[in-house]
Design goal:
By secondary structure, this protein is mostly helical. The chain contains 4 helices and no strands. The longest helix is centred in the first third of the chain and has 35 residues. The N and C termini lie far apart (45 Å).
Length: 97
């Protein structure tokens, strides 16, 4: 749905105001993403929930959550270690093929 264009052409002040609003929104998004990341990492460290449950609740993909975890030094739980090894081997084989 396209918004109705204004009757008068935009002024530089209109453009500057919209630009400022966009920057504030971007800053809020960055902060909320950082806050969510800290919650996700804390939950992974605590181990109460399965990583897939955490990923689903966060709205991020499982791959993104795994990447964040590895970058933060969180290794797969023993319960998931075998699966992680199989995935790693499969990815290595795909790279060779």
């Amino acid at each position: 749905m396209n918004p109705t264009p204004p009757a008068d052409p935009p002024t530089l002040e209109d453009i500057a105001t919209a630009g400022d609003r966009r920057l504030r929104a971007a800053d809020r998004l960055k902060k909320s993403s950082d806050d969510l990341k800290e919650l996700v990492l804390a939950a992974l460290r605590e181990g109460r929930y399965r990583p897939t449950e955490i990923a689903k609740a966060s709205g991020w993909t499982s791959a993104h959550v795994r990447k964040m975890a590895r970058e933060a030094g969180i290794e797969p739980d023993e319960r998931y270690q075998d699966r992680a090894e199989r995935l790693k081997q499969a990815q290595s084989a795909e790279g060779i093929a």
